[in-house]
Every structure is written in C-alpha cells, then in structure tokens.
Structure prediction request, 1056 residues.
Amino acid sequence: MSLLDHFPVLVVLLPLMAAPLCVLIDRPRLAWALSLAVSWLSLAVAASLLFQVLGSGPISYRLGGWPPPWGIEYRIDLLSAYVLLIVSAIAAVVMVFAYHSVAAEIAADRIARFYAALLLVLAGLLGIVATGDAFNVFVFLEISSLASYAVISMGRDRRALHAAFQYLVMGTIGATFILIGIGFLYMMTGTLNMQDLADRLPAVSDTRTVRVGFAFLTVGIGLKLALFPLHLWLPNAYAYAPSAVTAFLAATATKVAVYVLLRFLLEIFGADFSLRAMPLDLILILLGLAGALSASLVAVFQEDIKRMLAYSSVAQIGYMVLGIGLASPTGISAAMLHLFNHALMKGALFLALGAVAYRIGSVALRDLAGLGRRMPWSMAAIVLGGLSLIGVPPTAGFVSKWYLVLGSLEQGLWPVALLILLGSLLAVVYIWKLVETAYFKEPQTAPVAVREAPLSMLIPVWILVAANLYFGLHTEISVGVARQSTVQLLGVAG
Amino acid sequence: MMSELALSPGLILILGGLLIPFASARQRLGLLLGLPALTLGAVWWLPDGSLLTLPFLDYVLEPVRSTAEGRLFATVFSIMAFAGGLYAHRQASRTELSAAFVYAGSAIGVTFAGDLLTLFVFWEIMALGSTVVVWSAGGVSAYRAGLRYLLVHLLGGVVLMVGIVAQVVETGSLAFQAMQPDSLATQLILIGFLVNAGAPPLSAWIADAYPEASPSGTVFLSAFTTKTAVFTLLVGFPGADVLIPIGLYMVFYGIIYALLENDMRRILAYSIVNQVGFMVVAIGIGTPMALNGAAAHAFAHIIYKALLLMSAGSVLLMTGKRKCTDLGGLFQSMPITAINGIIGALAISAFPFTSGFISKSLETQAAADQGLLWVWMLLVAASAGVFLHAGIKFPWFVFFQKDSGMRPPDPPTNLRNAMWLFSFLCIALGLYPQPLYAILPYPVDYQPYTIEHLVTQLQLLLFAGFAFFVMLKQMRRTLTISLDFDWFYRKFFKEIGKEFTGRTSAARAAQEQRMLGKAQRLIDNLYVHHGPRGVLARSWPLGSMVIWVAALLGFSLLLYYL
Prediction:
C-alpha cells in the first residue's frame, strides 16, 4: 500500500500524534510552528481526499487491515471529504491567525499545552467525519469535546471557567445520550458499522428499542449542535473562549455536529424512517425556525459582540436544521451549503473580531466606536462577513439562503420562506448596529493610538472574506458537491 | 454579443460615487459632473440586447441588457445626477454626495437589469443609498424618518425577494420580462415594485421621508426611487388592469394631501405620488400609446419635479423656513428662484410649450382611445387638481401672497445654474418634443400642438385657476370695500387653512406618537425576553439547561411512540 492509500486515517493521525509532541516540546513558538505545519498538512491530505472521491467514488479504509464489520472502517464519501476539507481549511487559517492572538491572550507557560489541546480538538473533529463506525464517532466526539472544554477554559475572562464547566456538563450529557442511542442500535442489530446498521435497521425499525435509540440520538446530537432550546451552553462558551478558539469552534464544531445529524438521519436510519415515519421533520422545522428568529432577536439586543455573534450562530444552525427538516433534496442541499458557507462567514467574523480584541482588548459594542477609521481592514472584513451573514448577493451567504427559500417554497411552505427572510432582516439590524458604531460614532474616550492589526492576522481574515465572495460568485464547487452528496445520501431516488 | 467586458453603466456612478469622499474640492466637482456625463455616454454607446450573460446556479444572469425603455430612463437619470451634482456640490456633505451617486447609479443599474436577481441587488443598494441621503441631513427627525423609510423599503425588498424565488420555482427562469399578476409569485413581485412607487397602503413614506432630507437631498430623492419603480412596472407589468385603480387612488391621494399640507416640500412630495399615479394608470392601460405616455411623463416629471424642489430647496436654504404660512413675498428678492419655480409649476400643470404638455397628454389621450371614459374623466379632473396644488399653491404661497418681510438674496451660482439648466430643458422639450418622442419605446404618431388640444388644455387650466384668479382680483378690491367678503376669505379661509394645517399636523404628530409608542412597546416587550438579561439571553444555571434536555427527550419519545 502506498502512502496515498493511508490518507483517510492520516488526516486524523497527523494532529492526533502532533498533540503529545507539543506537550513534549513545551516551547510556545515551536509548538505553534508544529501545529501550523500539521494543520496545513491535514488540509493538503483532505484536499487530496476530496479529489480522489470526486474522481473515483467513496474510499473505504480498513483500520489495521481488519475487514468490516469486525474491524473499524474509515469511509470517505463526498460529504465527509467535503466536511474534512472545511474543518482542516478553517484550522489551517486559524493557526496562522493564532500566533499573535494566542500570545496576547494566554500565559506563555500554557501556550504549548493550549496548542496540544487545540490539535486534539481538530483530530477529534476530523475523526468524527472520517470514520464509518458509529462507536468510533462517539470516541472522537469525546476526544474533541474534552479538548475543547480545556481550550475554552483558557480564556482571559474568569467566567470562561464557568462557561467551560457548563459546556462540559451539557456536552457530556449529549455524548452520553449519543452513546445510549448507539447502544440501543447495537442491541438490535449487533453491528456498529454504519453501512451494516443501515442495512439491518429497516427490518427492526418498528421496535421500541430502535425508536428510543433514535430519540436519544437526536436529542444528544441536538445538544452538540446547539439546537434551540438546547443551545444554552453555547453563547457563554463562545463569548469567553480565547479569540482563536471561538473562531475555530464556531466555524467547525457545530458544523461537524450537523454532519453527524445528517449521517445518522439520512444514512443510518434513512430519510424514510427519520423524516417521514417519525415526525422529526416537523420538530426540526419548528425548532429551527424558533431558533433562527429568537436567537436573532437576542443578538439584536446584545452589547457584547462575541455573544451577539454566538447567538447569531444559534440562529444560523436553526437555518441548517430547518433545511434538513424540509426533507427534500433542495432543503438538504441548502443545509449542507449553509454548513459550508456559515463556516466561512463565522470564521471570518470571529477572526476579524479577534483582531479587534487583540488591538483594543475588548469586544463590547461601545468600544468599537470610531474603529472604522482606525482599523479599516479589520472593520471592512467584519462588514463583508456581516453582509454574507445577512445573505446579500454576491456573497456566499446569499447562495445558501436562496436554496433554503427555494426549498421551502417547493414544499409550498410560504410562511416559512417569509420567516427566513424576516430572520435575515434581523441580521441586518444587528450587523447594522456594528457598522453604525464603528463608522458613524465618535469614540467616547480620548483616542488611544490604535493601529491596524498585524498582517499575520489580517491575511487569514481576508482569505476567509475572499472565500465568502468567491463562493458567492462561483457556485459550481459548493453547490455541486452539496447536490451530489444529497443524491448519495438519499439514494438514487433523491 | 459584445465582448465580456460590458459592464452596467450604473457601476460608473456607484464606484465613482464611492470615490467622492476621498476627492479634493476641485476633483469633486470634476467627479460630480464628469461621472454622469460618462454614464450618459456609456448608456448610448452600448448596443441593444443582452450584453453579458453570467451563469449563476442553474440560471442565467443578464446584468447588462440594453433596451429602449431602459435607455430612456437611464438617460434622464444621468441628466438628473448631473444637475443634482451641480446643485449640491457646495452645500451638501460628502456623505450625501457619495450616497446620492451610489443611489443614482443603482437606479441606472436597475434600468439595465435583464434578470430579476440583478434587479433585486441594485434595488436594495438603492434603498440603502437613499436612506443615507436622508440621514445625511442630520438631526433627529431626519434620522427617524430615514429609519422608517428604510424599514418600508426593506420590507418591500423581502416581499420582492420571496416573489422572485417563487417565480423561479414556478417558471425556472430569472428573466425580467413582461408578466401578468396571475400567480402568487408575480403578485408578490408586483407588490414589491409598487411599494417603491408609493402605492397604497404604503404611500406615506414619500411625504414622510423626502422633506426631511437636506435641500439637495430631496432633489435627488424625488427622481430615482419612484421612477425606477415606474420603469419596472413598465417593463414587468404592462397592461395589468389592477394598476388603473391603484394609480387613480394615488392621483387623488396626492392631490388631497397636497392641498391640505403647509410644508412646501411636503406639498411637492405628495405631488410626486400624484404624478406617479398618472404613470401607473397609463401602464395599467397598457397600449403602446399609454406606455409611451408613461415613459415620456416620467422623463419630463423627473426634470420639472427636480426643478420645483430645487426652487423650494433654495428658499429653504436662504430662509431656513419650510412652512407656507411663514413664507411669502419672496419674489422681490429672489426673482431667479421664483421664475424657475414658476416654470416648474407651469410644466407640472402641463401648460402649453412646456414638457408637461407634450408628455402628459399622451396618457389622457390613450385613456380616451381605449374608451375608458371614467378613467379619462378622472385624469382630466385630476389635471386640474395638479394645477391647483402644485401649479398655483406652491409658487403663490412661497413667492407672492402676503409679504413675509424677509428679503433673502437668490441662492449661490451653482444652485442657480442647476435651476436654469432644468428650466431650459422644461421649455426646450415643450417646444421641440421630437427628440424625446424619438427615444420612446414605441413609435410615436402623435402631434401635441393641435388647435383642439391647445384650446382644451388652456380651458382646463383657466377653469382650474378660476377660483384662485377670481380671488386675486377680489383681494385687491376688498382691501377697501366688501368687508364681509374680505372676512370670508381673509379671515375665514385663513382660519380654516390654519385650522386644517394645525389639525392635520396635530393629527399627524399624534398618529406618529401613537405609532412610535406602539413600536417602543413592542421593542420593550422584545427586550424583556430577548434583552441581555431576558429569559432567552441570560446565562442559565445548569439545572435549567438539563431540564430542557429532559423535556425535549421526553417530548421526542412521546412523539416517536405516537
């Protein structure tokens, strides 16, 4: 076997192995350099995997050479290759940004361990996506979650500890629910391999055990993806985590949870069971809409921009869940597109905000006054990212909103389409508050010499901003991949 | 097909407008006059047809499609941007100039849009640009009015967007072409367009927001939003019957409110609703003659309405007063402003040898040709009403009437030049309409200067002005005799007038207070739940979080068992 054949596991192994190395090195700069190298290598591997999948179809990799269902199978299909690429690309960009930001926000003697934990988060997230084994999903979920509790708790604000603790409790409940759910499925089918599960479940889908398992799984995954009203851990976790962590988690962690939801609902249980036989589609539409509108409203009134964007993330997750709830090919493609686009826009926004925090040391709305002139590049990035969040053409955000509205109209759900657009109007309001403060208000205190953020921060920010614009105009890649994976997941009929 | 380099001419103004804040004073004048001229050149240089196609998702975008209708509107928009820039360049703030040019450019972008998505994008830029124009007047009332204005337009944008998506679902095409309001999709698109035209029930935003802008800002605002809506209706819904009653309502709404109003620029803002009503009726009639009429009327209207608002803006700039009751007698010290105001007033009243005469009559004639007796009669009656509220009321109360004692001089040169330019255009088009007729969307077979038309129109104007002229004579005589009659109009009418303005503005203020109160209560309510300390936003204790998990699990289990 050549090295190329090992790529499906290599993408996970790279960060997983580099993490202990970071602890051993224990030198901030070297640890950063190693993390940077590893994240870019992962990105390269993920990109190559996507090309392989696009070229020759899904890849199945047998861990240790054991054939499934006895051994663990790593399975890369189009959807997982796509999500792998998103996660590793965001990680690569965030690592560039992290150098200055982390040095400013975290004590020097902890930095190496911080990078080790961050790499573990990355490894866990990549593992969830790469594996084709249901129990393995739980294992990687725990790896990424435990590591993310650690990185969140390293935030400067002392409330970060409490936020991390709350996240830990809620996350653990979520993971336990998922484990219980998987246990029920194992009980009925005797297998943990996803494909085997998919084959054997229809025969037993009428049993109570499977239904209870289904309930535990959906609620557990709902917790991890911050489905309204299970989102309560998220705002504090995002608000008090270090800037780089917020950007990374906001752009990847909930996205991977959405991926898990898609995987379980559409592949393992099958759309017929999960969205048609069970009333989950209605639950998802209602909770998605409630989340989108309520969280947007909360965001409007927030004075802390990080919290504002965190609530906006809850709202955006609402849109994705709504897309899945539509249970149509267009709706599910829209959810996948939004998964991708939201990673781009929230990544850009939180990174730009991190650059602001690096210079002014605050993310309170009032401290942004007059910043449009003093940090023009960072603020311009926030404005462009905000436009994408609202869904203004020609940004990426528009494309996914478009498909979402299209999907709901296809089902004749007029009120849903209107509510989606009203949600966008709310986004206009809270983004406008940012713009108004930054560009039209004079700073309250005497102007301290605030300079533009260093280039090592601006470049990653603008890479993501450019991606927002690029994928708003060139939709073939993102839309094409989303559609093809929808067809794969829903079967030929989709 | 042209090269791939064809870009929407509107982009010249949009991108150029964004440069304005960075230009020095001299460069700024160059930009203000050069950009519209360049745009006008580009508008006429582009050949007919769709010049650029972009694949987008499953559809084809045509961001640059040159048509006769589009070119006509783009032409007058460029001229307007030129004169507006000339009028504004010394007095207006940089923000206002920049926003106004972005606004004008996006309006031109709409006229060149070949697909609904491009149209929507420029539509929304237009809403934002115009809001900033209102805001740049400064002050609380401008800020509030701008916010209300923005809300109306964003709401209209949402309706339009839903309509566009629905249209795509139904027809699979994004093309911007003639439609009929027979499906929910096209109806929503129509509503989206009509919101910008100032159609009922959302007519009030025009008179609410426009007079709050700066003197030059109002001039810009009067030209683009409503006329772009007329353009989209003209291309998208020619012959849609529903437009006839809507347009008639607008015609009379404008007249009645303008007659009751005291603020001179608000009178003219109501008059915009009235004039756009004429165009909407003509589009509803939908014959080539009527559509020509709507297009020609829009062209002429932009020029004379801008001229009227330039004149009113000059008065406001020099006196700082905006109410008719505070003004009067300004003819003595502001003759140039007065003359230009009167020319604009004559043009809007369709006086022979002005641009109103040669354009508006196409519309009434079209109604007559179609045998729409009632429509024709109402339009003719409304023409008399136009003369009353805009043709006489505005110049009379501002420049003549009682002597207010103020003796402000005429405004600075650049304002005067802009006014002269538009006065010239009003009269030139009236005397020599052929160039305008030549660029109308359909071939014109119409001769405005027939004896019959001249006589009818003059009769109409005479009768409409009858009351006013009689009163003028009476006034001079009653200074000495006829105390009763003197009281009747000098006291009684004045009191009634005062009472009316007082009542209406009090009612307005009360209404505004009530709406504001309602909005405030709604926001307060939302704040209670969604504000930083609201139940939906505060940090929850762990126990409550877990209760939610349990609740959702129980709920799901219940549902899955059922």
